[in-house]
Amino acid sequence: MAESVHEGQKRPDGTPYFWHPSRVAKIVISELEIRDINIISAAFLHDVLEDSQVITAEIIEYNFSPYTSYLVQMLTKDIKAEGLLRDIVEKEYVERLNGATEDARMLKLCDRLDTFRCLEFNVKRNPIKYVMETTTYYFPLAEASENPKMQYIVKELQAARNKFLG
């Protein structure tokens, strides 16, 4: 489903967009050693509701599970917002994630981690802003957690940030 939705989409570096959710799923499986099919499915599907005009939360629930649908909904935000509205949307999104399950927060951080690891390939127009936004808004989602998987993601994010910033 995710591959179909992202068919033809490219990231700014020219790579197929589907590679991004595939790498997020790989982080979940290989680095965090998570085998929960709901979490893995949500990793693949995390951008589907943003990028499809056909797929709905109900379709995801029907084809996968209520929990997978919940996770994807928690990871979905209004990506079309611009300017000051974008900052408001970002803050509301982080507040929603703060109240979401740890699985949702973990997936969001895996999403950010993959993008951090690709910053040197120009996947973001303003990578410094992306790094600062992640540090300010998203690191706190994990820093208070005692979950070793969340701590691992934070350490990897910090390492990728430091590598990028020099």
Q: Descriptors for this entry?
A:
single chain; mainly alpha; Hypothetical protein af1432; 68% helix; globular
Structure report:
With 166 residues, the chain is mainly alpha-helical. The protein has one domain (2-165): Hypothetical protein af1432. It has helices spanning 2-5, 19-31, 37-45, 48-51, 57-63, 66-74, 83-98, 102-118, 127-138, 140-143, 148-165. Helix 2 (19-31) packs across helix 8 (102-118).
Q: Please outline the major beta sheet.
A: none
CATH class: Mainly Alpha
Shape type: globular
Helix proportion range: 55-70%
**Unreliable spans:** none
Q: Please, what is the average pLDDT? A: 94
| Beta-strand residue percentage | under 5%
Query: Could you tell me the radius of gyration in angstroms?
Result: 15 Å
Number of helices: 11
What is the number of beta strands?
0
Outline the fold blueprint.
Elements: H1 2-5, H2 19-31, H3 37-45, H4 48-51, H5 57-63, H6 66-74, H7 83-98, H8 102-118, H9 127-138, H10 140-143, H11 148-165
Summary?
The chain has 166 residues and is mainly α. It is 68% helix and 0% strand.
